[in-house]
Amino acid sequence: MGNEMSPLQKHRAEYRPELPPWLQGTAVKVEYGDAAIAADGADAHVIRRAFPHTYGQRLAHFLPKTANAPDATVITEHPAVRVGVVFSGRQSPGGHNVVWGLYNAINSHNPSSELIGFLGGTDGLFAQKTLEITEEVFSSYKNQGGYYMLGRTRDQIRTTEQVKAAMTTCQALKLDALVIIGGVTSNTDAAQLAETFAESKCSTKVVGVPVTLNGDLKNQFVETTVGFDTICKVNSQLISNVCTDALSAEKYYYFIRLMGRKASHVALECALQSHPNMVLLGEEVAASKLTISDITKQICDAVQARAEKDKYHGVILIPEGLVESIPELYALLQVSIST
Predict the structure, then answer these.
(1) Rounded to whole angstroms, how far apart are CA atoms 94 and 226?
(2) Do β-strands 130-132 and 114-118 pair in parallel, antiparallel, or remain unpaired?
(3) What domains sit in the chain, N to C, each tagged with a CATH number?
(4) Where are the strands (E) in the chain, listed by range?
(5) pLDDT by residue (tens digit) across 147-166?
(6) CB 140 within 8 A of CB 13
(7) Other CB atoms closer than 10 Å to residue 46's CB: what's the count?
(8) pLDDT of the residue at 161
(9) Is the dihedral of CA 280, 282, 285, 291 positive or negative?
(10) Residue numbers of the chain with a pLDDT score lower than 70
(11) Are 184 and 61 in contact, with CB atoms under 8 Å apart?
(12) For the chain, how are helix, strand and coil distributed in percent, rounded to 5?
């Protein structure tokens, strides 16, 4: 993509996301709470053993400036920092805006701070291929989709060699923090990288940002992932168009495959928004131990039931990971992988 922006892109770039009150201004009011614990208590000892240096740290709560919290700390002085950022994992809406927000935050706190982007995803991180992100560089990427400002490649930091390469880059560039933007796998790698850095006394802090269209990284602290809402709205609009076409022609069945390998959140949300005739959810298939014959019968029964009402058309949503959710096919896939 060239630097020339279309009229639509220029219009998009004019939008300014609104910051929560407690993130506005240069003063930061924070209160430290209890230690972070595993969502499932039964897993706590396993996680503590795997992450002895980073598990159980106190939670930081950001508060509005007017909040009455005697134990809160108000931070007004911010030293200049060097922060690295890398795109990792499948691209998702909102990735560029995360970089935009990061740039604005560190520069509003201290104009001497620097944001370093790694070109080509994690491969660029290992090879120290960098781009200094400035207002001029970023101006054509505000509110734009994709990851094309920096790009992405292998998208993993897992092997010993990869972890060492990442640490070498952070130390060579004297980074105060490394921000990894991605989904479940990328944030898992970020957590392991943070543990390794802490164990090795590397001063670079590792931050994982949940940016994934699958919506499968959420808990009591994260309402949903960056990109999930957008991808569901866009897909639902397209699905609704297909529903209108099916209703108009009255003779076609459309099978629409949606993103989501292990989580069918996109398919479910799109079904709630667009009202297709049928949606298959991988989690339900796995929990009910349905066979491919069972699923085929469900679809055929639905088609027959509609035909009895003189309706010979319909729309059926299928998550991309459905095949892996069928126990018999999953076992077959595992055998294929092992051989």
Answers:
(1) 6
(2) antiparallel
(3) 79-224 (3.40.50.450), 228-338 (3.40.50.460)
(4) 28-35, 58-63, 73-75, 82-87, 114-118, 130-132, 177-182, 205-210, 253-258, 278-279, 314-319
(5) 999 998 767 898 999 999 99
(6) yes
(7) 11
(8) 95
(9) positive
(10) 1-3, 154, 335-339
(11) no
(12) 45, 15, 40
Strand ordering across the sheet containing 314-319:
253-258, 314-319, 278-279
Task: Give the model's pLDDT for residue 337.
Answer: 64
Tell me the per-residue pLDDT of 232-273, one tens digit each, with 9 for 90 and over.
999 999 999 999 999 999 999 999 999 988 899 999 999 999
Q: Hunting for tokens 């479910």 — which residue is that?
A: 268
- Output phi, psi for 166, to 5 deg: -65, -40
- 3-state DSSP call for residue 291? coil
